[in-house]
Amino acid sequence: MSLPPTARNIALFWSKVVKSPNACWYFVAAISSPDGYGRYNYQRRNRQRTVLAHRFSVELVHGPLDEHVVCEHKCNEPLCVRVGPGHLTPSTHSENVRYAIALGRMSGHTLLDGQGRSRYQRSLDIRDALAHGYDEEALLQAKTDYGRDQGILF
Ligand SMILES: [Zn+2]
Fold first, then answer.
1. How many domains in the chain?
2. Omega before 34 cis (within 30°)?
3. From ligand 1's centre to the CA of 153, what distance in Å?
4. 152 domain-assigned
5. Distance 56 CA to ligand 1 centre (A)
């Protein structure tokens, strides 16, 4: 981070995160298209930075990262900002690409989830589901029941 965040910047960041008790921690503020990642905007001394939310989170734990280091979502959840095994870990880009290929994410449908929904829309649905705090049922529906409201399934 070329502009180190203040304690207030960090507190504001966590105020935008909804933690699932045993799984991912979801960033529920700005979301970028088309990748579906969270974007965190912070200000310090009249300067402003917009960064990837998950990268911000990793840097809080690991310190400033070199540009070539990417933050890998082992949980395959673009909004997740939980740092640690099974969720977010810093890695080199080549490792990340290898991992993505292993998951089949680069087979031409990189920006779609398994239900033909864009990653961006999926993230918006999850953010909506968590708008009033952690709600396991709403979250599960946002992740898996896509199509029902659109009348596709019936
Ligand atoms: Zn996660």
1. 1
2. yes
3. 28
4. no
5. 15
Give the distance (Å) from ligand 1 centre to CA of residue 140. 14
| Residue pointed to by tokens 């912070």 | 42
How far apart, in Å, are the Cα atoms of 8 and each of 4, 15, 28? 11, 10, 18
pTM equals: 0.84
Parent domain of 93: 7-144
Report phi then psi at 90, rounded to 5. Answer: -70, 145
Q: What separation in Å is there between the alpha carbon of 49 and the centre of ligand 1?
A: 24
Task: Please give the chain's pLDDT, 154 residues, in tens.
Answer: 567 899 999 999 999 999 998 899 999 999 999 889 999 999 988 899 999 999 999 999 999 998 888 898 999 999 999 999 999 999 877 777 776 766 666 544 457 776 778 889 999 999 999 999 999 999 999 998 665 555 554 4
Domain for residue 151, yes or no?
no
Is residue 73, in this structure, part of any structural domain at all? yes
Q: For residue 57, how far is its CA from the centre of ligand 1 (angstroms)?
A: 12
